[in-house]
């Protein structure tokens, strides 16, 4: 680290998914179609919920925010990647990199917290059915949503501010198709101990705690369902949260894949896992709707 030249960072180079020119056109149309499908589908979900008064319930309020979060999440990385493929340029400005990194983490965490809130909503609906509207009143729902947005925005703003304090080396190539926090920190020539510590603390707290909340909610839900005597009653009750559970499984499954692949030496595996998390996972949201 110390032997490499240091320079004020002005831009980074995104090495992308592949160096083969023959794959560029295929990747462009593949990701464009998936992005348009995800963006349009989530937009239709939001419009359907807004226009139908029967859907103005806590569950669909959370779903509206989750759809908006997924639209923004995919929009932080895919359009830039498509632009780079189309223009045959891999450059992203320093400010653009920091912005992309921040909003990517913000909307990823927001989706995580909203899934936790929706799990709690299903827990109240199934285990405290008669008190559902009392517990999940509009004021409490707004508090849950506001808390999700604040807990997503503030910690990752701190990460960006801490990155601003770093000095970068001359080799500013990112082995990814977007600016990922860990890889940006690895390019720094100055001490990154505090950045690494903050990154691991944030990942632990905002990753593990919501997962514990989801598991606790579903433990109570499953316990309640098992006490139902009729098979049809069990199936009907579980069907109200089965789709949400599939989205949670997809979200945490791909998140774990991104984390494990980031520690491996094969960059191709990390890219594949990130593609699954960034593009494919939001498609599973349509199951909830």
Could you give a quick summary of the protein structure above?
With 289 residues, the protein is mainly alpha-helical. The chain has helices at residues 21-51, 58-75, 78-87, 94-127, 132-135, 138-164, 181-186, 193-226, 231-262, 267-280, 285-288; strands at residues 6-7, 11-14, 91-93, 168-169, 173-174.
Describe the structure.
This protein is mainly α. The protein has a single domain (6-288), classed as Rhopdopsin 7-helix transmembrane proteins, CATH 1.20.1070. Helices cover 74% and strands 4% of the residues. The chain is built from 11 helices and 5 strands. The chain has helices at 21-51, 58-75, 78-87, 94-127, 132-135, 138-164, 181-186, 193-226, 231-262, 267-280, 285-288, and strands at residues 6-7, 11-14, 91-93, 168-169, 173-174. The protein has a 3-stranded mixed β-sheet. Helix 1 runs antiparallel to helix 3, helix 4 (94-127) packs parallel to helix 8 and helix 8 packs antiparallel against helix 9 (231-262). It is globular and about 65 Å long. The relative contact order is 0.14. The model is unreliable at 1-5 (pLDDT under 50).
């Amino acid at each position: 680290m110390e032997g490499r030249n240091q320079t004020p960072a002005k831009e980074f180079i995104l090495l992308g998914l592949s160096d083969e020119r023959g794959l560029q056109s295929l990747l462009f149309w593949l990701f464009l179609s998936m992005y348009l499908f995800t963006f349009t589908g989530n937009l239709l979900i939001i419009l359907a919920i807004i226009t139908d008064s029967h859907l103005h319930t806590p569950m669909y309020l959370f779903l509206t925010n989750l759809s908006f979060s997924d639209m923004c999440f995919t929009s932080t990385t895919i359009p830039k990647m498509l632009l780079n493929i189309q223009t045959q340029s891999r450059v992203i400005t320093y400010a653009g990199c920091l912005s992309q990194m921040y909003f990517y983490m913000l909307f990823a965490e927001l989706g995580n917290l909203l899934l936790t809130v929706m799990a709690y909503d299903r827990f109240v609906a199934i285990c405290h059915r008669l008190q559902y509207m009392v517990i999940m009143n509009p004021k409490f729902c707004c508090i849950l949503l506001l808390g999700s947005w604040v807990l997503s925005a503030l910690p990752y703003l701190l990460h960006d501010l801490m990155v601003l304090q770093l000095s970068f080396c001359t080799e500013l190539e990112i082995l990814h198709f977007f600016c990922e926090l860990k890889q940006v920190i690895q390019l720094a020539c100055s001490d990154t101990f505090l950045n690494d510590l903050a990154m691991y603390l944030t990942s632990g707290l905002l990753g593990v705690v919501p997962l514990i909340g989801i598991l606790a909610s579903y433990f109570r839900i499953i316990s309640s369902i098992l006490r139902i005597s009729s098979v049809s009653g069990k199936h009907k009750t579980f069907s109200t949260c089965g789709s949400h559970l599939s989205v949670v499984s997809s979200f945490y499954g791909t998140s774990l894949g991104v984390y494990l692949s980031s520690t491996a030496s094969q960059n191709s595996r990390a890219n594949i896992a990130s593609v699954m998390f960034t593009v494919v996972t939001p498609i599973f949201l349509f199951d909830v709707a």
